[in-house]
Design a protein that fits this description.
It contains four helices and two strands. By secondary structure, it is an alpha+beta fold. A hairpin with a 5-residue loop joins strand 1 and strand 2. It is elongated and about 55 Å long.
Amino acid sequence: MSKQEIMYSHVEDWKASGLTQSKYCESAGINLATFSYWVVKYKNKTVEDGASNFIAIGKTLKTEGTEYEIVYPNGVKLRVETKDLSDLYSLINLV
């Protein structure tokens, strides 16, 4: 078993455990910084594989508005078709 397979297995076990990363690492004898590195790699892998926590929401009514794309600093993209610019204002100014 490769190091990657071992660490991905630990990440999956940790996610199922309900423990914090710190507590899981303590019980498994894994360095927390190393484990956190593999958690990020695992998350990036699942995004690349098409797995995501986000779903597309289809529209049921054509608004005949202008389509806008908002790209947040964390890379999340949101596409909105609207006639009302106040819709965009509320999405851009999320707090």
